[in-house]
């Protein structure tokens, strides 16, 4: 059985975040994350972030409407609006 954090949608979300961090780009919004996993709406993107955070693949710090996502394995970060 595949764990939820190992499915292809979470892999796509992880690669989008890692790519953004590696390139020094802003953190993708929840809608962009949802599009990357083949879904619509910010709730789908937010759910993907929660699953990745629970799995330990990323950590998220939030403050004043902004989020900093750290790719745990590589120590890369990307920042952007928490939306």
From TrEMBL:
<protein>
    <submittedName>
        <fullName>Uncharacterized protein</fullName>
    </submittedName>
</protein>
């Amino acid at each position: 059985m595949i764990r939820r954090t190992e499915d292809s949608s979470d892999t796509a979300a992880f690669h989008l975040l890692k790519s953004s961090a590696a390139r020094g780009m802003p953190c993708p919004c929840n809608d962009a994350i949802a599009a990357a996993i083949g879904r619509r709406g910010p709730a789908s993107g937010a759910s993907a972030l929660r699953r990745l955070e629970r799995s330990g693949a990323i950590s998220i710090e939030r403050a004043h409407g902004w989020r900093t996502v750290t790719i745990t394995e590589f120590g890369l970060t990307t920042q952007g609006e928490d939306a």
